[in-house]
Amino acid sequence: MSKKLKVGVLGATGMVGQRFVTLLAGHPWFEVVVVAASPRSAGKTYQQAVAGRWKMADPIPAAVKDLTVLDVSQIDEIASQVDFVFSAVNMSKAAIKKIEEEYAKTETPVVSNNSAHRWTPDVPMIIPEINPNHSEVIKFQRQRLGTQRGFIAVKPNCSIQSYAPALSAWMKFEPTQVVATTYQAISGAGKNFDDAPEILNNVIPYIAGEEEKSEKEPLKIWGKVDQQKGEIIPVAAPVITSQCLRVPVLYGHTAAAFVNFKQQPTKEELIAALESYAGVPQELGLPSAPKHFIQYLTEDDRPQVQLDVNFENGMGISIGRLRPDKIFDWKFVGLSHNTARGAAGGAILCAELLKAQGYITAKQCY
Q: Where are the catalytic residues (predicted)?
């Protein structure tokens, strides 16, 4: 690629925004030229704005540390400098929906980490290996917004990444019922251990909104684009019930899942389906795509956060402990990196897919 697409990161000073900035450093297709945040950070250099609250293990990338932070509400100014934006803003859902649509209406595509538009019927919610075809709904969204190139696409909740990919690999066996309990890292709340003393030596058995997302979002991901209605229609099955707990782990969401199938697959068939599962990102060799999307670990004590969370640079999924259950057909444990695959990394892979599909292009002028 001779010329990189120019990118803005909205909400760049928060934890997910910081992950965007670090993952995009040296990206072969995308270059961060704008960082934007709340008015209290606007006017400072990026390095000044995150001073004392930089949460990444890697240092601030040299290419962005001296960029002047803009106010996210400076929509026209930001849109005039970029080909598209990543959104990780920290606002109310209503405010996020409004500002993301305002950016899209400037003919600037928005790839969002936020949940505000996940249930907007003509907004695709994409895990690129699972439902890349959902981008087809963008043409209907553009009609609604009155845009030629502007649109919004979102990635799903980080908690479902630890079990939904396995279920996707097993769709040919027709899963009917799923119980999924997730044990979620504190970085999912935008915190580290310094920010969350309440989690030390503790488990908190409630995360606002997570159980509804965990139960419903996979159904949209497995749904179909209805060409007549111009929207995505979720599937009705499998029925998922979930509990979500916050645990004293920095990165990595673990799921303990139980599943019933209409078919009766063997353990060997289930493992083979996991290990062979791949999608468009692997076929196209997208820059952020893991070569191996799902690994199956045979050891009794795997997957573990400390050993497995960074599989494929955090973009792969680890599954283990697959065994028969006394009530359900099968049970297993899954693990995903919540800020790589589950947040910024998943959104970057989504943008790479949309670029490869022709939905994100360079603007003709700035």
A: 158 (acyl-thioester intermediate), 253 (proton acceptor)
Tell me which residue range forms the domain holding 107.
5-157+344-356
Among candidates 149, 166, 128, 160, which has minimal Cα distance to 284?
128
Count of residues in the chain: 366
- CA 173, CA 169: separation in Å to the nearest integer? 9
| DSSP per-residue codes, 22-73 | HHHTT-SSEEEEEEEE-TTTTTSBHHHHTTT----SSPPPHHHHTSBPEETT
CA separation for the pair 247, 250 (Å, rounded): 9
Does residue 365 carry a catalytic annotation? no
Which tens digit of pLDDT belongs to each residue from 242-268?
A: 999 999 999 999 999 999 999 999 999
pTM as predicted:
0.96
Q: 315 and 351: one domain?
A: no
Catalytic residue among 134, 253, 337, 350, which?
A: 253
Task: Give the residue from 201, 155, 156, 163 showing the smallest Cα distance to 182.
Answer: 163
The reply to whether 188 and 134 lie within a common domain is no
Give yes or no: residues 17 and 41 share one domain: yes
Q: What is the pLDDT of residues 135-194, one digit of tens each?
A: 999 999 999 999 999 999 999 999 999 999 999 999 999 999 999 999 999 999 999 999
Measured in degrees and rounded to the nearest 5, phi and psi for residue 158 equal -65, -30
What is the chain's alpha carbon radius of gyration, rounded to the nearest angstrom? Answer: 20
Say whether 158 is catalytic: yes
Query: CATH number, domain at 321?
Result: 3.30.360.10
228 and 128 within one domain: no
* Residue 311 within any structural domain of the chain: yes
Number of domains making up the chain: 2
Query: What residue spans of the chain are helical by DSSP H?
Result: 15-24, 46-49, 62-65, 75-79, 93-104, 138-145, 164-169, 210-221, 267-276, 280-284, 305-308, 345-356
User: Is the Cβ–Cβ distance between 285 and 306 less than 8 Å?
Assistant: no
Do residues 222 and 173 both lie within one domain?
A: yes
Q: Which of 158, 244, 337, 350 is catalytic?
A: 158
